[in-house]
Design goal:
Layout: H1 12-22, E1 29-40, E2 45-54, E3 63-68, H2 82-91, E4 103-107, E5 116-120, E6 126-127, H3 138-155, H4 171-192, H5 198-214, H6 216-219, E7 225-227, E8 236-239, E9 248-249, E10 256-258, H7 261-270, H8 274-294, H9 302-315, H10 318-325, H11 330-346
Antiparallel strand pairs: 1-2, 2-3, 3-5, 4-5, 6-8, 7-10, 8-9
Helix pairs in contact: 3-8, 4-10, 7-9, 10-11
């Protein structure tokens, strides 16, 4: 532990009021806050805080997670993170229990302060399955896809999608996105052309050419849901003492409305090498489909899941190019590129461009 200085959002009086407003604290007050750990990332800084109380504590948390933004040299928030704040304010409260960490407070950035979120501390009760880039065990993967199924099913074809919950991307927006990607791909070829032989260039060109047709699946606005958007296995907290129903999903900066298989394909087709993927990909899709049916999804058969999974895999060839354009390390995007191309071949995704 350390007694280093803390940001204003970790002030004892502020935390006391935040926990009271959330209903997590009664008459007691926080008298001391101790920083246990801290971890700085590119767009956020996360603190684990130990809380000491005066008065009857009851069920008040002994520790919390403070996730907050950085300030630039002028003292302004360098990144707003409005999507994750909106998730915890507007979406998380309506979810079934034990799918995401509880959020005690979510505050947007101002001209003079960074955004922050005060979250349930799962450190003692949960763990991340493996160190990146190792995949979880098969049993852990089953728990993860079941958690994804419960989340997706909770919003499947919800009438609020695109209205009170998120927004639909219209044709003009998607067209701009495709033009932007075409420009990114041209720059990618200029820099890394040797990694993209003629066969792969043709695949990208055919994808861009057929994109309006492929996007009809999205424009149907049927069998769509909220997706995480960055659903790799290191964004799942698994319970230390078992219980697949208690897996928690974290880091909600990239949620959107789309096909549920975008999350599944990202975890498996993008991030696993062929031998492992071929071994458990279909059994996990079976497990996922069985769970969404249990959770009340109807009119979406197993073949529809396979069709969407193949299409999601095909769209994912764009992700490594985007990652390179946004200065993600080559050790990330190059491995992603090679794995997703192998998955495209295994799953016959080129047939979707006929």
């Amino acid at each position: 532990m350390t007694t280093e200085s803390l940001p204003p959002a970790a002030n004892a009086d502020h935390l006391t009021e935040a926990l009271r407003r959330s209903g997590a604290l009664g008459g007691a007050r926080i008298c001391n806050v101790v920083k246990m750990t801290s971890f700085a990332k590119l767009r956020s800084h996360t603190f684990r805080l130990r809380l000491h109380y005066e008065g009857p504590v009851g069920d008040a948390p002994g520790s919390v997670i403070l996730k907050m933004g950085h300030l630039d040299s002028a003292g302004r928030s360098a990144y707003a993170n409005r999507r994750e704040i909106a998730f915890y304010r507007n979406i998380a409260p309506a979810l079934p229990a034990r799918l995401v960490p509880y959020c005690f407070e979510a505050v947007e950035a101002t001209d003079t302060s960074a955004w922050h979120m005060l979250l349930e501390d799962l450190t003692d009760s949960h763990f991340i399955a493996t160190e990146w880039p190792l995949p979880p065990t098969r049993e852990q993967c089953e728990s993860i896809v079941q958690a994804q199924a419960r989340f997706h099913a909770a919003w499947w074809d919800n009438p609020g999608l695109g209205a009170s919950i998120g927004t639909w991307r219209d044709a003009d927006t998607l067209d701009r996105d495709l033009r932007s990607f075409a420009e990114q791909f041209a720059r990618f070829i200029d820099r890394f052309g040797e990694l993209v032989p003629a066969e792969r260039r043709d695949l990208y060109e055919r994808l861009l050419d057929r994109a309006p047709h492929l996007l009809m699946r999205y424009h149907s606005h049927r069998n769509l849901t909220l997706i995480h958007g960055d659903a790799h296995s290191w964004n799942f907290f698994l319970p230390r003492h078992g219980g697949a129903e208690n897996v928690r999903l974290i880091d909600w900066e990239g949620w959107s409305i789309d096909t549920a298989t975008d999350d599944l394909a990202y975890m498996m087709a993008m991030l696993w090498y062929p031998d492992r993927r071929r071994w458990i990909e279909r059994p996990l899709l079976d497990r996922y489909h069985a769970e969404i049916l249990i959770q009340g999804v109807s009119g979406y058969d197993r073949q529809a899941l396979d069709d969407d999974y193949r299409l999601s895999t095909l769209w994912l060839i764009m992700r490594p190019v985007w990652q390179a354009a946004n200065n993600i390390a080559p050790r990330v995007w190059w491995n992603n590129l090679e794995r997703i191309m192998l998955a495209v071949d295994d799953l016959g995704c080129r047939d979707l461009l006929a």
